[in-house]
Amino acid sequence: MAPATHSSNPSVISVKSLHVYPLKGAAGFSPQSWSVDERGLRHDRRFMLVDETGNFISQRTCAKLALLRAEIISNVIRISYPIRTAEMAEPAASALRAHDMAQRKSLEIPLEIPLEIADYAITATPNNCIRVQVWDDFLEVPALWPKADAAMSGFLGQACRLVYMPDNTTRLTSMTRGEPRRNISFADAAPLLLTSETSLEDLNMRLQKAGSAAIPMDRFRANIVIRGAALTEDDHWSALRINNAHFRASNSCKRCKVITIDQATGEFVSRDPILTLATYLGDGKSVTFGQHMLVERAGMISVGDAITIDSCTR
Over the stretch 254-311, which tens digit does the pLDDT of each residue have? Predict the structure, then answer.
């Protein structure tokens, strides 16, 4: 295995930060190094909440998902959420209303499936699998955690179930993202999303010039944030390497209303940045920001790794 190449040279394109979102739609965590497999960053969006019909729940219809936080700690996933003000005495309730999310409840679930540990001990059988829908895809996946279902339903204010995608699940990327198709997690469209610090700086300059507030990168829920790329340079990449992992960039990411939701408060802010993006990054009726990527070779990537661009023939 070739040694990792780290860069502090501002002229070199490199990884600024990594972000893993184990629970689709929820906040995640930002490791310094993380493994990459065919589905993207390991464990990314392998858990998901579904409604009573089995359809996936996202921030598009439930902005409070942003207030959930999922982390991988050793061999468990920890899901935490703010304590509702009705359960708290003052002044803690006042602090929460001011968006201080320090007061949180949490639950932990072992990552190994089937589970035979602690309160979540349920042996996987066909009765423990349910049919779920992610856009046009229908899958049979385990739903093993009634206590988590109850906690998440209570916090979100709607009935939901927690499901998991095992490694042996088949869900392929769309043919529109090129051949060969790759397995994908519960993510919307592609195994990975890459965004550029330069693009955000340009967007924020435009937002502030128009009288709107600058926004943080977390609005875009990227997996890999890069620095050092020229403006719009990433729009043309088709093949790149980070350490020993190889990637194929398939297309620019069309953005939805999630980028108008403050990820710290779970609240809709304004129609920006969509309105501003539409003035210069429109794609038909959509706007774009960031790049969808597929994994061509698994590996390990780290903050500071230099990025090698192998092809710009998208």
Answer: 999 999 999 999 999 999 999 999 999 988 889 999 999 999 999 999 999 999 999 9
pTM given for the model:
0.90
* Within-domain flag for 3: no
Residue 275 in contact with residue 109, Cβ under 8 Å?
Answer: no
H or E segment and range at residue 78: strand 76-82
Decide the pairing of beta strands 239-242 and 267-268: unpaired
Residue type, 189: A
Dihedral of the alpha carbons of 4, 37, 223, 260, in degrees to the nearest 10: 170
Binned at pLDDT 50, 70 and 90, residue 143 comes out as very high
Rounded CA gap, 130 and 180, in Å?
29
Both tokens assigned to 276: 């501003």
Domains held by the chain: number: 1
**Looking at the predicted structure, is the pLDDT value of residue 136 above 90?**
yes
Q: Is residue 8 part of a domain?
A: no
Domain that holds residue 54: 14-311
Q: What is the H or E stretch that residue 93 is in?
A: helix 92-97
On whether residue 1 sits in a domain, the answer given is: no
Domain membership flag for residue 303: yes
Using alpha carbons only, how large is the chain's radius of gyration in Å? 20
First CA to last CA distance, the chain? 28
How crowded is residue 18: how many other Cβ atoms within 10 Å of its Cβ? 23
SS3 146: helix
Looking up tokens 């043919």, which residue turns up?
A: 175
Residue 92 DSSP code: H
